[in-house]
């Protein structure tokens, strides 16, 4: 997989370096030979710039992962508090409704965060020929009715589907349920307040996710990182001619003395592949909720929450953990 994904940039770099050698050796085009020192300086600057971009992109991914770690923790706390606090003749039914509605919220939030912006719709269309993209998109489980409707009543499903932010209104239903329990004296005021604080924490975590989703990675960083990278790799073979050019000439190549030319082409190809790969790595981390193979694993985390909470309430319909789509060693 690594070789397959590296092939386009490596092939382009190999062809361009070969063309530079041909221009220099066979057409005596001396202008393609430039001093290596300024190019090396540009390469250092590009490496720092791309490194800065990748660090910023990874920070966005890691923040998203920490938020979803918080969702997992609060979910377990919510289920434990519901089981401990809710009492009365219909306690078992109310506990199950509150816990399963929370699982519905987790899946609703996951589906909302996976909705693609116009930029990512355009980028996904460009990459739709890649088979692994199709595998990922087929496994995202984005059918709202199927993923959310199994945990709530049909009336609740119809009600929340009328709203744009469906996850928000699922938490609202939780609050209304707690108020009914308080009015029916199945929940005292102190316990209601404690449970409402957990709902407040869920809104806080949801808002943090929506902040990342609604604030795209600044395109100027991504654009100029790519531009600077391609400018550098374009002039790199010209600078390497100064290093290997002593042994590169028409007579040398025709007489079979090709090692300097081969070394120059291979070196240029490897350096180009490294820089282009570094630049692309940041693209896969900058938006952690867009459904890419390197995004926050919300499907797996949602399934973990569902398994834990169903086992806590004694529900027998416990699903299997989310299976990985790809062997992680391939990436």
What does this 3D model show about the protein?
- The longest helix is centred in the N-terminal third of the chain and has 50 residues, at 36-85.
- The chain has 13 helices and no strands.
- The protein has 331 residues and is an all-alpha fold.
- It has one domain.
- Helices cover 73% and strands 0% of the residues.
- It is rod-shaped and about 95 Å long.
Tally of distinct domains: 1
Overall average pLDDT: 86
Radius of gyration: 28 Å
Structural class: mainly alpha
Largest sheet, strands/sense/barrel: none
- Terminus-to-terminus distance: 7 Å
**Helix count?**
13
Order of helices and strands: HHHHHHHHHHHHH
> How would you describe the shape?
rod-shaped
The helix fraction, in percent, is over 70%
- Into which percentage range does the β-strand content fall? under 5%
- The strand count comes to 0
Contiguous uncertain segments of 5+ residues = none
């Amino acid at each position: 997989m690594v070789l397959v994904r590296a092939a386009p940039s490596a092939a382009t770099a190999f062809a361009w370096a070969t063309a530079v050698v041909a221009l220099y050796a066979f057409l005596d085009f001396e202008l393609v030979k430039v001093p290596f020192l300024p190019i090396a300086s540009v390469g250092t600057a590009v490496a720092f710039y791309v490194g800065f971009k990748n660090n910023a992109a990874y920070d966005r991914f890691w923040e998203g992962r920490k938020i979803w770690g918080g969702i997992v923790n609060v979910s377990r706390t919510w289920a434990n508090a519901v089981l401990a606090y809710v009492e009365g003749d219909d306690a078992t039914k109310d506990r199950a409704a509150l816990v399963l509605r929370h699982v519905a919220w987790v899946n609703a939030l996951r589906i909302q965060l996976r909705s693609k912006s116009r930029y990512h719709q355009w980028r996904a269309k460009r990459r739709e020929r890649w088979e692994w993209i199709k595998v990922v998109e087929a496994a995202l489980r984005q059918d709202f009715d199927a993923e959310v409707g199994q945990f709530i009543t049909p009336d609740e499903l119809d009600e929340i589907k009328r709203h744009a932010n469906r996850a928000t209104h699922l938490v609202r239903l939780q609050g209304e349920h707690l108020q009914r329990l308080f009015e029916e004296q199945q929940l005292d005021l102190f316990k209601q307040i404690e449970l409402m604080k957990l709902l407040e924490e869920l809104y806080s975590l949801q808002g943090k996710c929506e902040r990342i989703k609604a604030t795209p990675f600044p395109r100027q960083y991504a654009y100029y990182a790519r531009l600077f990278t391609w400018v550098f790799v374009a002039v790199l073979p010209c600078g390497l001619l100064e290093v290997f050019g002593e042994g590169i000439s028409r007579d040398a190549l025709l007489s079979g003395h090709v090692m300097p030319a081969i070394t120059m082409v291979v070196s240029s190809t490897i350096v180009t592949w490294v820089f282009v790969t570094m630049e692309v790595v940041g693209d896969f981390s900058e938006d952690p909720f867009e459904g890419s193979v390197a995004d926050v694993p919300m499907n797996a985390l949602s399934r973990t929450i569902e398994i834990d909470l169903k086992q806590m309430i004694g529900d027998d319909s416990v699903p299997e953990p989310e299976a990985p789509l790809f062997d992680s060693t391939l990436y």
